[in-house]
Amino acid sequence: MEASTTAAGASSRLYETFTRLCEIRSPTGEEREVADTVAAELRALGFEVSEDGAAGPAEAGAGNLLARLPGSGEGWVMFCAHLDTVPHQGRVEVVNDEGVFRSRGQTILGADNKAAVAVFMELGARLAERRGEVGLELVFTVAEEQGLRGAKAFDASSLRASAGFVLDHAGPVGEVVVSTPTQQKILADFHGVEAHAGVNPEDGASAIAAAAAAISRMELGRLDEGTTANVGLIHGGTSGNVVPGHCFVHAEARSLELERAAEVAGRIADACAWGASEHGCDVDVRIEELFRGYQLPKDSPALSLAEAGLRSAGLEPRRVAIGGGSDANALRRAGFDCVLLANGTDAVHTEHEMVPARSLDKMLAVCEGVVAAVAARAA
Fold first, then answer.
1. How far, in Å, CA of 137 to CA of 119, rounded?
2. 157, 231 in Cβ contact below 8 A?
3. Phi first, then psi: what are they for 277, rounded to 5°?
4. Alpha-carbon torsion (126, 128, 131, 132), positive or negative
5. CA angle 109-111-117, nearest 5°?
6. What's the burial of 247, exposed, middle or buried (CB within 10 Å: 0-12/13-18/19+)?
7. H/E element, 125
């Protein structure tokens, strides 16, 4: 990215970088090209860029990137975004429709999370031009869309910054996430006995019937203000004329309260055991915590710095609770103080995904405000 000193030129550079990144295919497991592109462009700006060994354990196409640009002072600040997208078919072609970026075809746009990636690269270009007082660390994770696997494998102790900022909340710029749920994944394999459905069905034991009975016993949907449960995937059987000997069910439970998430997951597992027993089947149930929720402490330095950055950009912070997770969950679980901020995107993971150009500009202004707040605190 070439340096530019005018505001219009900087915005144009940001938009061009965003468009170019979105048009690089990078669903989880295929991050290599976009990782190489980001690393090469940041090295050209003077960043020291390293890649960790997360590709294997995270089942990703590349490792996590950590890019560093020292400042003139002792302070450091960290920003984080993920490089992967959800799966999609076809080539992404970005259009700027009267100030709103969309995909031209029936694909995702990829603003989740390349809007933040582009903003951080522009921030890096600006700081490289003038060498700010604060050192900049940019973390680009992989496999976020599949259980935060890259962030979970990242060594947060390697960071020099004491506070970080993850721009991966799909909402109006200005929202600050202070509460997220714990998510439990429940996988159930029902094992029955196959038999001919028309000749000797009484010799069979239907795994699908067992799964259906189990699901009928589950409490699903919104269970209370902070708790949800869902069965999102079920498949089994081999043919319409065969009593099915196997059925797989994928469910989840989320709650803002850690114990409540575990309780609901346990009830789903109990329902699976009951359904299997009722239909003469066996069932193997596995429960895995995908991410741990958090309630951001009121005295979190990252929170106060984020809100200072927002106010510096002319935005009034709005504290919100959400029902999803992000790399911030994994980083906070590792003991690193960070906060999740909105990035102005909408309809993510769909062909209607979009982000206004002004949201990219706002995100950049917020990041610059955060850098200024960190510099003031370090002085």
1. 14
2. no
3. -65, -40
4. positive
5. 140
6. buried
7. helix 111-130
> In angstroms, rounded to a whole number, what is the distance separating the alpha carbons of residues 50 and 65?
6
Residue 155, phi then psi, degrees to nearest 5: -90, 95
How does strand 135-141 pair with strand 76-82? parallel
Q: What is the β-pairing status of strands 175-180 and 94-97?
A: unpaired
Residues 46-84 have pLDDT tens digits of: 999 999 999 999 999 999 999 999 999 889 999 999 999
Can you tell me which residue has the tokens 């106060």? 304
Residue type, 281: C
State the residue for tokens 């100030």: 99
Which residue in this structure is represented by tokens 């106010």? 311
Q: How far apart are CA 161 and CA 378, in angstroms?
A: 11
Q: Which residues of 103-120 are buried (b: 16+ CB within 10 A; e: fewer)?
A: beeebbbbbbbbbbbbbb
Residue 77, classed as helix, strand or coil, is strand
Give the rounded distance of the alpha carbon of 113 from its chain centre: 8
**Cβ atoms of 148 and 329 closer than 8 Å:** yes
Among candidates 120, 35, 37, which has minimal Cα distance to 85? 35
Indicate the angle between helix axes 7-22 and 111-130, nearest 10 degrees.
Answer: 140
| Amino acid identity at 75 | G
Local structure of 81: helix, strand or coil:
strand
- Could you tell me if 57 and 14 are in contact, meaning their C-beta atoms sit under 8 angstroms apart? no
Residue 44 CA: distances (Å) to CA of 41, 176, 237, 264 = 5, 33, 55, 50
Report, as residue numbers or ranges, the catalytic residues: 84, 144
Rounded to two decimals, what is the model's pTM?
A: 0.91
pLDDT of res. 131: 82
Whole-angstrom Cα distance, residue 261 to residue 222?
12
Largest pairwise CA distance in the chain: 83
Of the candidates 366, 372, 361, 360, the residue with the CA atom closest to the CA atom of residue 339: 366
Q: What is the DSSP string of 263-298?
A: HHHHHHHHHHHHHHHHTT-EEEEEEEEEE--EE--T
Q: Is the pLDDT of residue 305 over 60?
A: yes
